[in-house]
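agent> step 3/5: call structure_predict on target 'Flavodoxin domain-containing protein' (Aequitasia blattaphilus).
agent> reason: downstream docking stage needs a structural representation; sequence fetched in step 2, passing through unchanged.
tool.input:
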Amino acid sequence: MKNIVVTYKSHYGTTKQYAQWIAEELGATLLERKEATPAELQKYDLVIHGGGLYASGILGIDLVVKNPINNLIVFTVGMANPETTDYTEIVHKNIPEGLREKTKVFHLRGGMDYGKLSLPHRGMMAMMKKMTIDKKAEAELTDEDIAFKDSYGGNVHFIDRASIAPLIQYAQEL
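tool.output (status=ok):
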């Protein structure tokens, strides 16, 4: 693939950082979601879209699922550990069935600085904690629950440039 674009939508910067690294590694054009148009995407042989995960939604995914794209890679960025998290429901909710089979999806781990969260996002995190973590007995907590509980209200970052290697390899092999 010679002509590649990386699009992204990021609230707090971790998805943007991954998108920058991916574009750099592949020699691709980098476009923030608000700059990208369906007509612009048609100029590229491969579109790679990155979006942060919020309430099981992938930010900016509408751009690539509502417009025909021949070669599509999607990467998500969230707090959960991709090695132990099942993203099937999120993928099914965000990528239509006909497109799902043609789209390769990668999941990357981001970070969170509670001090920088918007009021609505802080409220969502508090509600999530109350509805899941606070209702479970200590013995029922999963590793993900414990990590969430331990990091709640703080500043934690798992962003790692090395984690993009499988995506880069896949894109180069197309």
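agent> step 4/5: record observation. Residues 114-155 form one domain.
agent> proceeding.
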